[in-house]
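URGENT: need a sanity check before tomorrow's submission.

F., can you look over the Checkpoint protein record below? I want to be sure the sequence and structure line up before it goes out.
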Amino acid sequence: PAAPSHSARARPAQLSVHAGTASTMKFRATFGSAAQLTKLVVMLDKLAESCAVHLTADIVSFQLPPSASGGVQVAAELAQRSIFLDHRIESRAENNRITFFVKLTNLARALRSCSRTQSERVQVKLTKKMNGQPTLTFEIQLSDAQVQVLHDVPIRIVQDPAELQPYSEPEYSAAAEAISVVLPQQDVRGLRNVVERMRVFSEYVLLTASDGRAAGTGVAAAGDRNAKLKLQVEKDNLVEISTTYRGLDSVQLPSSDDDQHGDHISSPRPALESCARVEIKRLARALQSLVASDIKMHSAICCILPECALILKVFLPSADEVGNQPSFVVFYFPVQL
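Structure tokens as predicted:
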């Protein structure tokens, strides 16, 4: 598929939720392939026990709060067209949205069954049991027999917007100083091995990103691939180990002054760098979950906001080329000051 449009700016979650019940909401969809969704949910299941799920006409999104995922905020979004052949959603909530909480182990178990069986058709729908429990029901029609397999996954519909506050994606004031570099998918997988080796030497890893601006011009020319990402650890001020990824693309974000004057070329300045020190076990856990799930990746943006956060946004291949709706998973790592 074509390369996605890279953006390092996070999109905050929509928190407007009107009171509703499963009886006033409808959702039904037929899977094209459940493989990528299964791998995503399996990955999230390695990080937290439960999550918030948002269903809209265009996307399926997941959110994990820092308290549930080892201090790392996680959000993921898949285009509906990349998962379902057809789908229908009706809700009284804003943007025709259905939001609920679900235990990831239960959801992963149902999706694994959908992916592994030789099925003629797999559907998922929102139902309500006799006891009033809202449920995601997966209906698997086996192709080699007139047998239908059902998996019921209990969920809890969100009634109060305040419940979603811990799940909302963070906003940062230091975006002007951020440096973002693009990592090909093979480097994202290799990064896991690098970080795992560094874990034995230190509790923290220092990441430094350089945007590759030519000296004296202050401009990183498109296609130059001069950006770099360096990872460095120290042990007892005696041993220093570092790994540098060179020849990367950088993501150029116009400054606020540039936006006001309609000019996206800033005044000449030297090459820029941004640094962030993060807890290495948090970074290792996130990378391990990505690689172990065998989820298909396109590329990733590593965005460093000095003294604020390290953001790793991994783009996933999407079949929604017509709608241009990207699929991705993003990790927000707090920095050690």
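My own read: DSSP finds five helices and 17 strands in the chain. The mean pLDDT is 83. If you see anything odd, call me.
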